[in-house]
Amino acid sequence: MNLHVINTGFFKLDGGAMFGVVPKSIWQKTNPPDKRNLCNWAMRCLLIEDGNTLMLIDNGLGNKQDEKFFSHYYLNGTDTIDGSLKQSGFTADDVTDMFLSHLHFDHCGGGVKRVGDKLVTTFPKANYWSNEDHWQWATQPNAREKASFLKENILPMQESGQLKFIKEKEGRSSPFDFMDIFYASGHTDKMMIPKIKYKNHTICFMADLLPSVGHIPLPYVMGYDTRPLITLEEKAAFLNEAADNQYILFLEHDPINECCTVQRTEKGVRLDKTFALKDIL
């Protein structure tokens, strides 16, 4: 198995929204905002090369939305999904499986592109993996999340015939031998956190359960989470497990750090080390 970091660029979100009830005087120490109170965030994806399987986990925001949409998010950086795949020696046609942690636009928007007046899947030979509960949640959105679940990002997956649903069977959480899945419903219903078995490590793609190292303390829960008290429970369970088992946490949104480990302290689970993915390969 080989793992590749696929960078798709950066975007900006309100710092207060990203840290919920935590005061700015505290969170700005790890994530300093600009004069508009916006913090910069990565859209960092993970490519898994395992035999005949080439799986991409999440795919960033994409580029098909209109100028008004992009004006809210201040896209920046030079990385693109095609460029990052090329740097790793692949193209979109090589991807066999497109695993979606959840269907908010900054995680799945790059999976569909505009060709002329049509919307088509970016990865024409890939299965697109979600789960039935989250799919229903995303296609019949509540008012709070409606702006994050965009039909043009989601429905073409189904219309193409490439959409597949992951189901737990015989005690297994994943159809892939190299992966287990932790389901989290505090941020959005049935978000999937892949736990990848790599050599002697477990590498966890944290999606929005842990956006950055600045979110490790339990109260640091995003204002975007639909059920923040459930997020507290899920974070506590997951981070304690991660500390006890020395999981490597792959951070999708941290603007600086690709990976980290955590440790138990007198104040609870806290940051241990940060490092690049290549440092463990």
Summarize the structure.
With 281 residues, the chain is α/β, with parallel strands linked by helices. It has helices at residues 15-19, 24-27, 67-71, 81-87, 105-108, 132-139, 151-159, 228-245, and strands at residues 2-14, 38-50, 53-57, 97-99, 112-115, 118-121, 127-130, 163-165, 179-184, 191-198, 201-205, 248-250, 259-265, 268-275.
- SSE order, as H and E? EHHEEHHEHEEEHHEEEEHEEE
Q: Share of helix among residues?
A: 10-25%
Average pLDDT confidence is: 95
Radius of gyration, taken over Cα atoms and rounded to an integer in Å: 18 Å
Question: Widest sheet: strand order?
Answer: 1-2-3-4-7-8
> What is the beta-strand fraction?
25-35%
Q: Which parts are unreliable, with pLDDT below 50 for 5 consecutive residues or more?
A: none
Which overall shape is indicated by the principal axes computed on the Cα atoms?
A: globular
Helical stretch tally? 8
Give the total of beta strands.
Answer: 14
